[in-house]
Amino acid sequence: MSGQPRLETEHLVLRLPQLEDFDRYAELFCHPTAARIIGGGVARGDAWRRFLQMPGAWAVQGFAMFSLIEKDSGLWVGQAGPWQPDGWPGTEVGYALHQDARGKGYAVEACSAAIDWAFATLGWREVIHCIDASNTASQAVARRLGSRNRGPGKLPPPLDTHAIDIWGQSREEWLARRARS
User: Fold this and answer.
1) Which of 32, 65, 102, 121 is the most buried (most CB within 10 A)?
2) Is residue 63 within 8 Å of residue 85, measured between CB atoms?
3) How far apart are CA 71 and CA 34, in angstroms?
4) How large is the C-alpha radius of gyration of the chain?
5) How is the chain split into domains, by residue range?
6) What's the pLDDT tens digit per position in 56-97?
7) Could you tell me the pTM of the whole model?
8) Which CATH entry fits the domain spanning 7-180: 3.30.200.210, 3.40.630.30, 3.30.470.20, 3.40.190.170?
9) d(CA 49, CA 60)
10) 80, burial (CB in 10 Å: exposed 0-12, middle 13-18, buried 19+)
């Protein structure tokens, strides 16, 4: 990995995943309903293997979701950032928040920083968000980020039976929106 990016927002530090993040990560992904839409409700061993995906993607691709650390508490509160596994429908900025961190605006705050970083550092031309059609909270986040629903999409196997909509926007749309705000 060349360098170790670290981003800061008003309430969060976005950094590469570290071992001490795992217990809170497991709380999220092992919870039977908290992470249902993103494949949660898994056993701790499965959560461990999922957790290692992000450091692996950072090492191999040079990007992945950041760990989100709440500045006030120092707690891991989720993950957000660029994500593009093999066969993915586009250059995604995704997120998942621990159940006690929801409703605080952290998803929009973290994704905004991650989108800025992806466009500036990775040279991406667009960002997408793969959102379960029933996930109205994530749809609201996508709208607040300026993305629009582009219609149904398909994830690669074994996730191909999961119905999603693809939300997104171009780099130009993002930059124009940022200039207005």
Assistant:
1) 65
2) no
3) 23
4) 15
5) 7-180
6) 999 999 999 999 999 999 999 999 999 999 999 999 999 999
7) 0.94
8) 3.40.630.30
9) 16
10) buried
